[in-house]
Amino acid sequence: MRHIISLLVENEAGALSRISGLFSARGYNIESLTVATTEDQTLSRMTIITTGSDRIIEQITKQLNKLVDVVKLQDITEGNFIEREMMFVKVKAEGDTQRGEVKRLCDIFRARIIDVTDTTFCIELTGSGDKLNAYIRALHENNIVEVVRSGSMGILRGEKALTL
Amino acid sequence: MELSGSEIIIQFLKDEGIEYLFGYPGGAVLHIYDALQKQDDVKHILVRHEQGATHAADGYARATGKPGVCLVTSGPGATNAVTGIATAYMDSIPLVVLTGQVPSHAIGSDAFQEVDAVGVTRPCVKHNFLVKDLDKLAETLKKAFYVATTGRPGPVVVDIPKDITAPHIKIPYHYPDKVEMRSYNPNLKGHPRQIKRAVELLLGAKRPVIYTGGGVIMDDASQELRDFVRKLGYPITQTLMGLGAYPGTDPLFLGMLGMHGTYEANMAMHECDVLLCIGARFDDRITGVTSKFCPYAQIIHVDIDPASISKTINVDIPIVGGAKQVLTEMLKLLDRSESKVDQSAVDAWWKTIKAWQAQDSFAYEKKDGVIQPQEAIEELYKVTGGDAYITSDVGQHQMYAAQFYHFDEPRRWINSGGLGTMGFGLPAAMGVKLAFPDKEVACVTGEGSIQMCIQELSTCLQYNTPVKIINLNNRYLGMVRQWQEFFYEKRYSHVYMDSLPDFVKLAEAYGHVGIRVDDPKDLHDAMQEAFKLKDRTVFVDIITDQEANVYPMISAGKAHNEMDISPLQQAKQASLKAKGELV
After folding, report:
1. B100-119, pLDDT tens digit by residue?
2. pTM, 2 dp
3. What is the sign, positive or negative, of the torsion defined by CA atoms of B308, B310, B313, B317?
């Protein structure tokens, strides 16, 4: 099962390597990991997407909680949650036909073109991982120059929140 | 009071009540050593290798319950300490290791004797710190001791760049009495409803077993455990790490369980209907194959570390809490509960257990002219009256010591259980002897293990720590040889120790006394002579049977009831069967 684990961690050097080190040392999977500071500069918010049996997920959350730098943790897939990921795609865009086609595809996916040259477009797209995958599939493979994905972020719906 | 970083470190250790600092100087810690030299409250023990420092501090910590403290230099000083840090980590021992670091401005430049000590030790510490700011030094040290000694204890490394300890930069110092960490709040008190459920389940048991580990010793809960077990009259078994928490000579004690545990303890585990585990972690050396572990049992698990619960074995009633607090609560509930022990069922259970005990799974055959390793430990037990602190290395001798030295008190049996670190025994014994100079301290070892930290014999002389080294010398790496005998058709690959040193002469060269004994007739006198020399370190080199094996044994993939038993026990089983006394 795929789980989204949200963490509040001390914003200290080494905290990230403690967490990534735990995953590699114990052989757990990481699909993606994102991290940045919060409105409180002493705290970082981290989202880890991982997969494993219930037993493994239980161990992952327990082992993460045990790390001294981890202040609070929640498996948000246990509740009602929103998940989003951001992606930049640089595509070839040469000639009116190709440029028009890329723009139409952007409209369909509600993507934005954020940089333009004579030969390329840079496109920004936000959504679930599935939507991002669908967009990539919709582009002609030969036209993709590069893809940059942020990894997923998650948040609980409603009044519930992961705060101190 | 205005102090430099170095003076803060030493003053802090004084204020923290630290008696001994085990260490080895070097470039990055020169300032600290200069401050150390100007006082005599914190006594420094100069080891011969940083691994020795960590094991000595570890032995001190295990025997006293107080944190062990080490000071080593950067680079190789730190990497040499890693084995000892990992040893303490696996056995949850409170250790604070101060490592010197190159000056802050040089970090990352591949400076002389630079290693990323925080990075290198990260996977084997409870936590570690790099001190970046002199103002934070005292607070960081306090945090280190707090984290190391509370909750599930463990080693903490504090990496201190040389500029932080510079003698000319002084700041005001106050001893931080306490420290708060929002991300670290260990829970000691078990959940009341879970404890109640556990007590009711225990009282309804027909074939109960209590299985305890090092957590009971760590939490100083031996007395509570004794009261609890005696009140119930249930059989108890202990892990290698747990020996001594419950008296080894008590009739309710079934002996150690696990890979080389007693037949009765392992059979009782397999057949029990309720298992209470306190302060142990269902380690692979205990469970055998997990799919066949305690197939009929409902399991209660008390542990201070939530991550230990349902890690390898799923349990029915988990209780997160300290052994002492939970046992105290359980004792109260036992007194209050309206349910009573099912005495007839438990009596019948004891009858079954007694039949297993009658097979005497540790029995071995004595031979003329050849010392059996087991009889050497039995002799040690006799001569010391069972009252010594015993440290050990790792291998067959460790198992024989656990099997044949019956520990009646906690903190007397000091060995590397989790990591299985050869070389642990001698420095650990030194640490114990410093803590308890009036007690007998013996290191049970083998000719393989002892050579991994033998340099500490020199430290023993410098600091006058007269320990006794009981070297079971079979000229083989015995445990590896045993596995090669059992599982590799006696292909003894690189386990024969050719060209061994003359240990008697070696002991003498280090300024100690050496005694060699190779005949069972002389064993008693040799052992007595060694312990008569109160103020000398004595190396007793005991030449033992080369191919003796440790029995019983649970091989890989086997369950508790599938032990390999000794030829003697097999014969006994056959004769009991013939008489119709064994079904």
Report:
1. 999 999 999 999 999 999 99
2. 0.96
3. positive
